[in-house]
Amino acid sequence: MKERKRKYFHPIEVTLDVVCGKWKGVILCLLQERDFRFGELKDQLSSVTPKVLTQQLRELEEDGLIARTVYPQVPPKVVYSLTSYGKELEETLRMMEKWGRAHQKKVGENYNKEVSEAGLS
Amino acid sequence: MKERKRKYFHPIEVTLDVVCGKWKGVILCLLQERDFRFGELKDQLSSVTPKVLTQQLRELEEDGLIARTVYPQVPPKVVYSLTSYGKELEETLRMMEKWGRAHQKKVGENYNKEVSEAGLS
DNA sequence: CTGTATCCGGGCCGATACTG
DNA sequence: CAGTATCGGCCCGGATACAG
């Protein structure tokens, strides 16, 4: 569904490759709290369409971050949860959350757009 | 150059929005070590084209993560360095690096593709 | 050395409708 | 309830050439 690079030049590319999807960060943060059903996730991410949500979830699953548990009943019930690999991201996610909260107002404001000029080297 | 979302539903989106570019993670990791000139970055990221490298750097600059210092001389010399905001990402980047190194072999291998079925809820 | 300018293909993501 | 199917726009990122 999503082709991963075979070769990475730097380990951080692995993490970013896996976490950089429109909704993946929030999904992973939510799943740190507790397990979620498909519909619950859809409610939390109010503007996501079912197709895209499914895509994001499938990719996270393929990359081993989350698990999908199907309860065979009618109507169907599907629960998403973190795997141990996903849980190991918890600290990282928390730090990203913290940084984001701290700098939310700064991002994209061009607050340092003045050109800095230094003397000769 | 790159439009940022006005509203974020979750703080982690801010961080991901800023860090998710093809070369941004590696660039930020490199700059943790020391300052780099444009050409040095180009050498480290062997397959990047100057246009794309410039784009990535400009966006990081707009978002306040890095600073661009021009030495007015011939031939020109431009040095990129972390701002204090960029430095605050250091711990986060290190953790992403660590997770990536640990799970590089797992990612994209579909190692848990078997369907898990649970009993009735 | 440090970039711009131009062209362009592919993939991410959304809208909408339909299904077991 | 938890998804598929289909269509399509936009923008990211690469190729290539050129510039101060």
From TrEMBL, chains A, B:
InterPro entries: ArsR-like_HTH, HTH_HxlR, WH-like_DNA-bd_sf, WH_DNA-bd_sf. Keywords: DNA-binding, Transcription, Transcription regulation. CDD domains: HTH_ARSR. Pfam families: HxlR (PF01638). Residues 10-108 form the HTH hxlR-type domain. This is Helix-turn-helix domain-containing protein. The lineage of its organism: Bacteria, Bacillati, Bacillota, Bacilli, Bacillales.
